[in-house]
Amino acid sequence: MVDIPFDPVAGIPPAEVGEVELYHPRSWWTRYVFSQDAKVIAVQYSITAMSIGMVALVLSWLMRLQLGFPGTFSFIDANQYLQFITMHGMIMVIYLLTALFLGGFGNYLIPLMVGARDMVFPYVNMLSYWVYLLAVLVLAATFFVPGGPTGAGWTLYPPQAILSGTPGQDWGIVLMLASLILFIIGFTMGGLNYVVTVLQARTRGMTLMRLPLTVWGIFTATVMALLAFPALFVASVMLLLDRLLGTSFFMPTLVEMGQLTKYGGGSPILFQHLFWFFGHPEVYIVALPAFGIISDLISTHARKNIFGYRMMVWAIVAIGALSFVVWAHHMYVSGMHPYFGFFFATTTLIIAIPTAIKVYNWVLTLWRGDIHLTVPMLFALGFIVTFVNGGLTGLFLGNVVVDVPLSDTMFVVAHFHMVMGIAPIMAVFGGIYHWYPKVTGRMLNDVVGKFHFWVTFIGAYAVFFPMHYLGLLGMPRRYHDIGETSFVPASAHDLNAFMSVAALIVGFAQLVFLFNLVWSLFKGKDAGGNPWGATSLEWQTPETPPGHGNWGKELPIVYRWAYDYSVPGAVRDFVPQNEPPSGVAAQGAHP
Amino acid sequence: MSAVILFMATIAAIAGWWLSQQRLAAKPWLEEGVAVDFRGERGSSVPAAKIGLGVFLAVVGSLFALLISAYSMRINMVDWRELPLPRLLWINTGVLIISSVALQWSLMAAHRDDHEGLTVGLLVGGASAVTFLAGQLVVWQQLNVAGYVVASNPANSFFYLITAVHGLHLIGGLVALGRTSAKVWRGAPMIQVRLSVELCAIYWHFLLLVWLVLLGLLTGWTDNFVNICRQLLT
Description:
The structure holds two protein chains of two kinds. By secondary structure, chain A is mainly α. Chain A is about 60% helix and about 0% strand. Chain A contains 14 helices and two strands; from the N terminus they run H-H-H-H-H-H-E-E-H-H-H-H-H-H-H-H. Chain A has helices at about 30-35, 40-70, 80-115, 120-140, 170-200, 215-245, 270-300, 310-320, 340-365, 375-400, 400-405, 410-440, 445-475, 490-525, and strands at about 255, 260. A two-stranded antiparallel ribbon of chain A has the order 1-2. The two termini of chain A are about 20 Å apart. Chain B is mainly α. In chain B, about 75% of the residues lie in helices and about 0% in strands. Chain B has helices spanning about 1-20, 50-75, 90-110, 115-145, 155-185, 190-220, 220-234. Chain B is flat and about 65 Å long. The two termini of chain B are about 20 Å apart. The chains are: A mainly alpha, B mainly alpha.
């Protein structure tokens, strides 16, 4: 290889890149454990996220057992139930979905899709993973400390979050806040990498408007996360100080167990503002990468270019910007001024427009496409249906007058599980089935995959469809046991039992998926370099799985966008991004 | 939350301006070949580390904007009692300005290939930053002795929190400055040193700016300023 010295001032990487630029692992430890290679970091992120996600899955089983068969299981008391819902929510939203989409998919796909050899700051990238792991360990430790994890609900609202009577008041809440602070520090390190890599390390010819939508989704979500997570950081630090030093940032004057507390004058609403200033963008931090992944899956597996690429990009950017001015729609019942609620209801409904554009474009991409019902495609279709479903109930809840009676009922639980639980996890599964061949060189088992999809899809609907109805009945969320109430009929209890059985089956299907991941690693069908006939750069690597530095001797040169499927007159039904235009030899194309 | 909304609007304006330069109206399905990649025509481009620092400053800016938002919401509650700001704070501010100026001096020396000026600038910058931090600790000490402890009033809590967060960011900067100085000590080529010094200087100026805004907030100047603006508007 010709040795071209790395020039830190140059913006565009030269076609041929010398050895100096790239970090090289020298031992087993630096290759597989303390690795600075984004691909290894991505796998580390994914395995850690899925491991802690399994804990959250088991917690959901325990919650469903209690809800479906109250009083049957003596080992679940009210305190534990509260701890289960808190940890389930927190793990799923932050430690699983955020970490998996940005740390997992982001790390693996960004350098490959933009045609870079690695992230721009590999060392910081490695630190990001280890700080994330530490955050996960601190979180997991709360299960073993005296008093157990916090039971404050995933929103951690003060004052109850740090008062006695809430489980985990001694240690659980302190470690939870510490873990969140660590997570945000770790994420910021990774996030800087994702953003700057997209901005600075794109290969020749890779303009922004030629990026696959997956990169657009992850990029925009990362920018949002970088700006929104500081709100959770500030809220966590201040709540921690209230708990540990007795300050009164959020804590009002109150009487606890007949005694006046040391707190006074603080504002719980202030916490809600800070929390939801992070919390609402968080929904789109999880949704935008899913949007991007789904766009790519649909286009590839329907063998058709994405409909309205420009509109898709603009919609992603618009959603990202708008999501910062809707946060208070989570606070309609906090006693806010009605005009305030009116403003936030309006901005909330406006977000439906770019979102609807995306849904129409997916459907129009499918229209008269050559749809291959592969497992990734099934999950992509499942995503669209589920996302529309959850999005529509979002329109209900976005209106103040509808939200007020539905607030804190199972309807809300059903809504957000549909829109940011089931839908993003469908995108995660679709993405894993789609890119697993590139990561490992082997296909996931198709039959097991289809079983996994159908059980998950139908099962998830069996759990969450009836839950809307329970919410309309007025069944409150976060209750350990409804008991005997006049407004909840006996049939609702039967429905609860049915949902619990469905939830157990869905959970079981995820174990089958994990088995598939491990089994296919050794026994899966050989995938080859490009099993789906896809156009984007990650499928054009010289080796599969991609080697260190991704591209061998020369960086690829990009000649077209990522969606040239079924081009009339072309030899194959896809034209890779790095294939020169007909009649132009690769050598002659240097500008 | 108006402070953070204002901050986000600024970020959105910058992002919007940048996006407007990126030919987002291009029709990629009609364009083949590498000719549409206009980055080559621009010539020199900004190094990745500088962009990285810019993004990081946006994150830090968001953090402080949120702290300011929380401060301005909490200040309206009835239990707020102003705390007297020690005189030393003004001296500390002066020291931080010296630190920033010294690093700027150092950067200019690096551009002139003036090795001695570079070293002196880095030393003075680092030493005065450490002095600033020590001064802030003394301020804490004075307030503590005078009975303004962290939990006795939200005004105190915010003062300690805001100064601590700012100080921690400066400590982080000192780590980077230490590495830069080590690089100079080892005699690294000037082109590498120049970039490192420039990044340190930008970070220092940013932290100085943040400190001046925070000082305005803590002394109540910002309140007066906002009130004047409000009167002008109504």
